[in-house]
Design brief:
Two copies of one chain form a homodimer. Chain A has helices at residues 28-37, 45-58, 70-77, 81-94, 112-135, 139-154, 158-174, 179-202, 210-220, 223-247, and strands at 67-68, 97-99, 105-107. Chain A is mostly helical. The first copy, chain A, binds a DNA duplex (30 and 30 nucleotides) through residues 19, 23, 44-46, 69-71, 79-83, 85-86, 101-105.
DNA sequence: ATCCGCAATCTTGGATCCAATTTGCGTGCC
DNA sequence: GGCACGCAAATTGGATCCAAGATTGCGGAT
């Protein structure tokens, strides 16, 4: 349901607003708020800009299709254009933004087909990661897992919600110590993070016990059951995301 | 386009060889040769620098562990340090280089475990991509596939060898039109590209007919057979790469 | 009145310049 | 003689400045 977001007015700036006052800000204030959260001491300003912009994209402050003007972003964050450019390059590599020749960068949108792809691949990769991890599972890890699962379920807010779940899955797959595998999963989760967030805000939380269910299966050592829980969870989220995407697909097309 | 670049001081890196040993010197000329191949009109210098450095890493001109000094690279390529930095950031996202705090970038090495991971994941992803693609396979695509397979088998040289194979797999998996899936596969292939190249140069080419074998299975519509050919091919290459990595693992460590 | 072309302005991309941090080396002290 | 502290040089990271290209708005011509 639109309108519920605090900073949801970002989609409205489509084309007419670009020239007049659009130079500085549809989302300036929300972005500044994010920037404030990251004002802590970073070793390099570029990584700070990256984190700010990534979070802004993930929580919808910068919506898909949004034009990203380097100078505006730089002024809003409070740095020069150079670290912003670095951040944009990284975000392009992450698949979150798209560079159009010499015409600037825009927040990349994910089509329904691509979202389906992401979840199909995640099913493959994560079930495999889970099986590998279960071979090396330890009781201590189970304890931490259960803890993190509770935290993740309790978390409601946007960015923290994604973070909590990331920690849970990092712990879940971490036993196998497969950095490349985890990196791939992280990339895929990053691509759909925004849409999951939207779904979480809009839809309900019927997935609340799936974490515990998963931990229980892992604890019991039943790989097939755990895989099935994971698979059904992922496909469930996938379907919800797809429904949301097709629902508002025509609006945010470009 | 008629830009007579000031390709001046290119040999500047031999200024001081105090403790080089195996770290920083020997690649200036080879890198320049690569730079020459890419001197064609690029829209942006940054992408050119990226291509040059990526190829340099892939064909071993810049070996794993190599220290990448921005100014040296910039002078060798003939541009400023800024596009080099952009390229390095992209390469970091690709997992080919690694930034060490404020101490510069080095060419990232792939451990044997990580290489194994890459191939394990590739088996998962590529077999799935293959099955999806076979659902949409067309006779015309088979024809092009057979053509590309022959080209790939004929190709011997380094960079072109990888390129030819890339085209073959792009055509093979392209029928399914799954951009995210293909992007993931490309990333993984990029990570091991250097080692495959080394293996190709060192070892033999007993895999010559696997392309044709694969195409035949695809043409026959036998998904299981095609998957098995692909799987055995990938595990074969994997084992060769692993053997090579463990063989010279102690030497090129540092 | 509409369409094509030109020019001005805005925005990206690149280069040079400056500061901050790290590293290597020298000296002094233990 | 060895280790530690400090200084100096080099290299990375950031900011400001400059050029190139694209888009848009305006004007003229058909």
């Amino acid at each position: 349901m639109p309108g519920a977001h605090p900073s949801a007015s970002l989609v409205a700036m489509s084309e007419r607003e670009t020239r007049t006052a659009g130079a500085s800000a549809p989302s300036a204030e929300a972005l500044q708020k994010l920037a404030g959260r990251h004002q802590a001491g970073y070793r390099s300003v570029g990584t700070m800009a990256y984190d700010i912009l990534r979070d802004a994209i993930l929580d919808g402050t910068l919506a898909p299709g949004q034009k990203l003007r380097q100078e505006t972003l730089a002024e809003t964050i409070g740095v020069s254009r150079l670290p912003v450019r670095s951040a944009l390059i990284q975000l392009e590599a992450d698949g979150l933004v798209e560079f159009h020749a010499r015409r600037g960068a825009v927040v990349k949108a994910l089509s329904a087909e691509q979202a389906r792809e992401v979840y199909d691949i995640r099913v493959l990769l994560e079930i495999d990661a889970l099986r590998h991890s279960m071979d090396e599972m330890t009781p201590e890890r189970i304890v931490r897992l259960r803890e993190l699962g509770r935290t993740a379920d309790a978390e409601e807010e946007g960015a923290d919600f994604v973070d909590a779940r990331t920690q849970f899955y990092a712990e879940l797959y971490g036993a196998a110590a497969r950095p490349v595998h985890w990196e791939m999963i992280e990339q895929l989760r990053l691509k759909v993070g925004r849409y999951v967030l939207g779904w979480r805000l809009v839809g309900g939380g019927d997935h609340g016990h799936s974490h515990e269910e998963l931990v229980a299966a892992v604890e019991a050592g039943d790989a097939d059951a755990a895989a099935e829980v994971l698979r059904s969870h992922l496909t469930g989220v996938r379907d919800a995301v797809l429904a949301m995407l097709s629902a508002e697909g025509g609006a945010a097309a470009r």
